[in-house]
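=== Structure Prediction Worksheet ===
Name of assembly: unnamed complex
Input type: mixed (protein and possibly other molecules)
Chain count: two
Listed entries:
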Amino acid sequence: MNGLRKDLTTASIAIVFMTLLLGVAYPLVTTGVSQVLFSDAANGNRIEVDGKLVGSELIGQDFRGKPGYFQSRPSATGYSANVTYFNNLGPNSRELSRLFAKQLDAYLKRERPYVPGLTSDDVPVDAVTTSASGVDPHISKANARIQACRVAEVRGLSLSHVEELIAEHTDGRFLGMFGEPVVNVLQLNLALDREAPR
Amino acid sequence: MTAQGWAQIVVFLLVLTALVPLVGAYMARVFEGERVFLSPVVGPIEGFSCRVLRVRPDEGQDWKAYARSILVFSLLSWLTLFLILNTQGIQPLNPEGFGSAPWNLNFNTASSFVTNTNWQYYGGEATLSYFSQMVGLTVQNFVSAAVGIAALAAVIRGFAARSGAALGNFWVDLVRITLYILLPVSFVAALVLVSQGVIQTLDGSTTFKTLAGGTQTLALGPVASQEAIKELGTNGGGFFNVNSAYPFENASGFTNFVELLLIMIIPAGLTYTFGRMIGNRRQGWALYAAMLTMFVAAVAVVYAAEQHGSPAQHHAGVLTHAFDGSTGGNMEGKEQRFGIAESSLWTAVTTVTSCGAVNAALDSLTGIGGLVPLANMGTGEVIFGGVGSGLYSMLLFVLLTVFIAGLMVGRTPEFLGKKIEAREVKLVLVGVLVTPLLVLFATAWAVAGSDGTQSIFNAGPQGFSESLYAYMSQANNNGSAFAGYTGFVQPNAPGNAGAYGYDFANLLGSVVMLVARFLPMIAALAVAGSLAGKRIAPAGAGTFRADSPTFVVLLIGVIAIAAALTFFPAFLLGPVVQGLTDQLF
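=== Predicted Assembly ===
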């Protein structure tokens, strides 16, 4: 019994001590150091235009219905950046299959007028599947290549100019090795607005 | 599958293997109270902590005293966390003004974090204040990991001891593991993650007009400090509901690589620690080899399955082949920056270890792809496993293998020169069987009536997979989920106004997590206590060596057969059915 009483005392002290060290000091010191050393990244890599916040480099946005912009990947959450969840439909879900068919159809309808002969076999898989975060900031290079034709025409830019902008906003793999090459949609669209304001 | 994809996986494993002896030797020194390079800095804090706790390193505890300290500490931790979660509304650092979540959800969350499970019925950014995340969850991320590692340190001491009953002192282990291993690595890792885009701020969310004219609200918070220990301690509970798929938790291929290393390094390094402490490094490498072999098999299967794509895609006419500029494969619920290879690697890494963080939606994995995480957990989390808990569970399987081998050749089984007798074998069986039995009973109960089935999201076999996954994950203290399965409804998200939880899912899950965490841990400590006093017989010509390739093969066989015998029928009903058919449900 004596041992138990001693354990209860020691455990109580340990919890108070650990809470102060790990729950207060550690996150606060990390916050302080981060804010000093990496304040841009620590606050979410925010992008401002004319002093006004327009988004975060890392968080995708909704561009549906705006043909002058590159479109983000489909989102299950309406591109929410404060209530996140997965689509969660299973691999053999009939409902999911219908959603894919709908996305594929919409993609072809949107892009085909600008890319004659575009078929479902040309559509990269990221263009019709919902991302995990709902705010995937990126699309694949193949997806950007197809959308470039529409954006160039709507904006009155040359295709090669748009392709240059895509290349500028493409991130390669880390060390040429880890992850996948990606095109940042928000940054690309901001660059378009700078090059060809509309 | 592409050569590029495989290169990522192989290089990751090479880097990990190169780090194992370094980190393993460091942890052994920490367990043995030796001086390490951090001693000049950490030593004074350690001395201070021990004075505050009034404990001394030479105050050895036998297995019962060690286990009692763990249980008392965990019980008080649970009460503290439950209290914090239930009084969220009156605490500071709550810029969104969230009230408390319902008590049954808090019951589940408290059980989940104290057991190093980190199952998420709650939705991080939409349910919890910064105070709850920092002072509640982050603290438990550290100490529940430290408890697992401490229990392992005690178990190893029992295996290595030549006499006596002392397995070390829990409080000293808790302090040393936290101060020398978890805290410094987390701090450095957190800063590395911040530099790459993982956020770390106490500011509240900000709403703005998007480029296309809509509105978006950016949830913020002290994410990196939690992210680092969430991976390092194989915890896995995300600051955000979508966990490490969210760019603010995992921003790039680089952060993904760092986080994967953080998850694997302690469980992998501990095999070397074990070898060093028992004075047979070969034995440590043998365990590492067994784990690595099973892990590589898991990665290969999930990667092949995900690259193939899903029936839902094929029926809709979606092209799933890779071509220039597109990953192909099943990208539903995956992030473009990770693609198929890094998502598959992550899925295997977080389910062989009991990390349970996700960077893709597991509910949307293909049938066979989803089978892999289930099977990984079905081994009892012994392929690397949780920090500490993985290796002590593996050691139980080692004793079981030694025992079975002994039966086959008709010899008294022994391990490290110590005879394995009836008492040890009985305890091993308790430790090995409790978790799978809980999984099967809980799943059966959950699918048998409407109390359990209200949690299910998908129709057809996927609904069964979700239920099985929920209890498999909670029993093995993993925490990843087929996330359609829910125990918490939040109609006015974000915030907890009007939110309610399902008693059945929350409470059954809690019981499963608590029992499956502490009963096997106690069994392992009891085995170690019983081995501690045993004489070490010198190895002779007839000794069956446990550090040989033959033993590694036998060990893998025993683990695979035990998992298959237990779970094969259940796997057939869910993921396998879907993996073998093109049928939609």
